[in-house]
UniProtKB/TrEMBL annotation:
GO biological process: protein import
Coiled coil: none
Name this protein carries in UniProt: Putative biopolymer transport ExbB protein
Keywords: Cell membrane, Membrane, Protein transport, Transmembrane, Transmembrane helix, Transport
Species of origin: Methylocaldum marinum
Keyword Membrane applies: yes
InterPro entries: ExbB/TolQ_transport, MotA_ExbB_proton_chnl
Compartments where found: Cell membrane; Membrane
Cellular component aspect of the GO annotation: plasma membrane
Membrane topology of this protein: Multi-pass membrane protein
Amino acid sequence: MLNLSETAIVDGTLCLLGCFSLLTWSVILLKAGELGLNKLRNRTFLNSVRNGLETGSDPDLPAGGAAQLARVRACGLKTLAQAKVQLTLRGDMYEAWHDLMERAMRLQVQKEKARMDSGLGWLASIGSTAPFVGLFGTVWGIMHALKDIGEKGSASLEVVAGPIGEALIATALGIAVAIPAVIAYNFFLRQNRRIVVTLDHFASEFLHATIQNHLTQQTVTENGRTTAH
């Protein structure tokens, strides 16, 4: 009964590490596909919209499908559409609407960041706990291996090496699970930060083009009034 319990605990530790490994590689493959898709969509959208941004916000430009940049731009355009209605009545509210537009796009960038970071917590947790889970299995295995050796009354190398060597497998497996989890976590974190920088830069560029367009319109309007007088 005792031997069955010892085996069950060690086997349970190895099974848990196996589940950790399966979950780690599932998250890695999922996030890698998501990262590649986001980069491709953003690059395609940025190439199609670049000329429009250089000359001002153009609502007739392609929507960009599921690109993150398209969603940030859609938030800016939605606020801009509301501003156009109000600015025809109150021309002195440009600054307030520009502030609202910036906040709307920043909020969307934060949503995109939260979406990209989802799942990375599993990698961080597995990377930090897997070695300890493996160490627990090893300590448990060694403890009961030494107990069995004591009961046999022999400490020869043949008697000691086998059980202890088997117990050390848990630690090795724990480290093998933790290494790819930690590497993948750091990699995806760096990649997500780069994408967030790209989204922030795009939002700033969009806001700059919008402000420039409004200033041009104000100048033309004021010159028209001066000429009329």
